[in-house]
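Before a colleague's protein record goes any further, I have to sign it off. Thanks in advance; the entry in question is below:
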Amino acid sequence: MQARLIDSFENYDIAHAPLRTTDFGQADYQLLIDIRRFRVATDDEPRAEIGLSARIVDKNGRVIASRIIETSEKLDKIEPAAAVAAFDAAFARIAKEVIHWTGASAAMK
């Protein structure tokens, strides 16, 4: 998931994309992502759910901003191909939201 989020940042703005963990140097800020939910829910209507906890921390470990970001995408039917398509659509939405939130949070510093 981390690699896909970094890819999303690079596709959005390659000049300001976050460093990968294999890049050299220490960044002034880090975006930390914890996966809170990644599942197919079948209670009311079938849907793919993704929930992330995002934090921006400085190089001293101080939290600059934090947010919980969640989304879901309806499944046409409960089968692997439909689940993959729903997760792909949900991830595209959540990645876009993470990118915009990160940019807005960075602009406020």
Notes: The beta strands are 29-41, 47-58, 63-74. The mean pLDDT is 85. The radius of gyration is 15 Å. The helical segments are 2-12, 80-107.
